[in-house]
Amino acid sequence: MRLFIAEKPSAAKAIAEVLGITSKGDGYIERGTDKIIWCFGHMLEQAEPDAYTPGDVPRNSNGKSRNDPIDSTTEKE
Predict the structure, then answer these.
(1) Whole-model pTM?
(2) Which long-range contacts (CB under 8 A, 24 or more apart) does 5-9 make?
């Protein structure tokens, strides 16, 4: 058995359409022995940037890390 957890009912329905639906229950969809269930709302949340970056990393004037490869405005030392 495999368990697929979707963020919302419409995402579960999309997964079920690809896998094929064999039956529906109260809060789940089945395909053989596989189950597709869903939640309502966001299951995960990203942490604030400071949770990823130590506080002693040098910052530029807009608060970004000076070593941020994505930030095109990064100050070079």
Answers:
(1) 0.53
(2) 5/37, 5/38, 5/39, 5/43, 6/36, 6/37, 6/38, 6/39, 7/38, 7/39, 7/41, 7/42, 7/43, 8/38, 8/39, 8/40, 8/41, 9/38, 9/40
